[in-house]
Amino acid sequence: MSPIEPSNSYKQKTENKIIETRPKLESKSKLKAENLNQAENQAEITLRPNSLDEYIGQERLKKILMIGISAALKRGDSSSMGHILLYGPPGLGKTTCAFLLSKLIGSQAHVFSAPSLDKPKDIVGVLMSLQKDDILFIDEIHRLNKITEELLYPPMEDYCLDLSSGNGASTRITRLPLPKFILVGATTKLGNISAPLRDRFTHIQKMEFYQEADLITIANRTAKILNFDLSPKASQMIASRSRGTPRITNRLCRLVRDFSAHKNTNLASPEVVEEAFTLFQIDECGLENTDREILKTLIENYNGGPAGLETLAATIGEDARTLEDFYEPFLMQLGFLERTSKGRKATTKAYQYLGYS
Ligand code: ADE
C-alpha cells in the first residue's frame, strides 16, 4: 500500500454537488475569526448569484473568463481553459467565480481551504475523487504546505498523480492518470505563492474592490432575497459603507433587515438605516471599531508608527492575519494607513479623519 493513501472521509462527502471544507483551527484568536467566517459563509451561500449574468461587477474578469471558457468549449475540452489563480482582498467573490464556472461547464465544484489539506493523503483523496472538467477550488492557496503543493504539480501539468511507495533506494513512483480538471486557486497574498506554483496557472487575475453603483445593485438584490424593502437612499448608504466588498454589503443588509424588524417595519428608510449604523458604530466610510482602534493605537501608542504588524495586533488583541488580510487593505485604499519596510504608519489623512488635527 502506498504511504500516501487517499482519505476516505472526503469520498463520503462527494454525494453533494458542492462541497465546502473549512480550515482546521489553530489558535484561540484564529478560532474567533474562523467561527465568524463559518456563520457568515452559510448566510453568504443563499445570496450567491446563480449565473454570470446575475454576477454584478468585476467586468474585466468576467470577460476574461467568458472568453477562456467559450474558446475551450468550442474546442470541446472545457479544462483546456487552464488553471486560474484569483487574488485580492477577501469577500470580493473568488469562491463565487469558481461556482459559476462549474455551472457554465456543467461540472461539480469542490471547495477547500488550504489548511484543511495539510496531509498528503487529504489532497490525494480529493484529486482521486474528481471527475472530468470538475473545478477544484483551493482558498488561501498560499497556505498550502510544501509537500502538498509539490504533490499538485503533476496533476496540474499532466493530469496524473505520482504516488511514492517504499523508502530510500527502494522508493517506487507509481503514476496514476486523473481526469482533466480546472484548479481555481484563491489568495489574498499573491507574493506568498511560490514561482513554480504560480507558473502552472494560465490565468492570474486580480479581483478589484467594487464601485458604489455595483454595491447598490447588490444591496437591492440582497434585500429582495431577504424579503425586505430598501429605499434608494438607504441602499446607497449601505453601499457607501461596504468597503468596496459585496460580502460586507450582504452583512449590512442582514443587520438593517433585523433592525427594521425591531422597528416593526419592512421598509428600511434612510432614518432607520442611520439609526442602525449609529448603534453598530459603522461610520460614513464603513469603518468599524477595530479599524478606528488600529489607527488610534498607531497614533496614540506609537506616535503614528511605524509599528510592526505583530506588535500592533497584540496591542489591540486582534489576530495578525485578520489585521493584515481584512482590515489593512481597506484602510490603505482609503489612504489612512501605510505599510512601510519598518512597519505600519498612520497617514496625515488618518489624523485628520479621527480629529487629531
Ligand atoms: N453577492 C455577492 N457578490 C455578488 C456579486 N458580485 N453579484 C451579485 N450578487 C453578489
Please give a structural write-up.
This protein is an alpha/beta fold and 357 residues long. 48% of the residues lie in helices and 15% in strands. The strands form four sheets. It has a six-stranded parallel beta sheet with strand order 1-3-4-7-2-8, with helices on one face. A two-stranded antiparallel sheet has the order 5-6. A two-stranded parallel ribbon has the order 9-10. A hairpin with a 2-residue loop joins strand 11 and strand 12 (343-346). Helix 5 (120-129) runs parallel beside helix 6 (146-158). The site of adenine has 11 residues, from helix 8.
Strand/helix succession:
HEHHEHEHEHEEEHEHEHHEHHHHEEH
| CATH homologous superfamily caption of the largest domain | P-loop containing nucleotide triphosphate hydrolases
Overall mean pLDDT stands at 89
The main sheet comes to:
6 strands, parallel
User: What's the assembly state of these chains?
Assistant: single chain
Assess the beta-strand content as a share of residues.
5-15%
Helix content: 40-55%
CATH topology of the largest domain: Rossmann fold
Per CATH, the class of the largest domain reads: Alpha Beta
CATH architecture of the largest domain: 3-Layer(aba) Sandwich
Count of folded domains = 3
If strands are numbered along the chain, what order do they take across the biggest sheet?
1-3-4-7-2-8
Q: Give the low-pLDDT segments.
A: 11-18, 22-36
Q: Which outline best applies?
A: globular
The ligands found in this model are:
adenine
Number of helices: 15
SS-derived structural category: alpha/beta
Rg over CA atoms, rounded to whole Å, is: 22 Å
Terminus-to-terminus distance = 69 Å
In total, the number of strands is 12
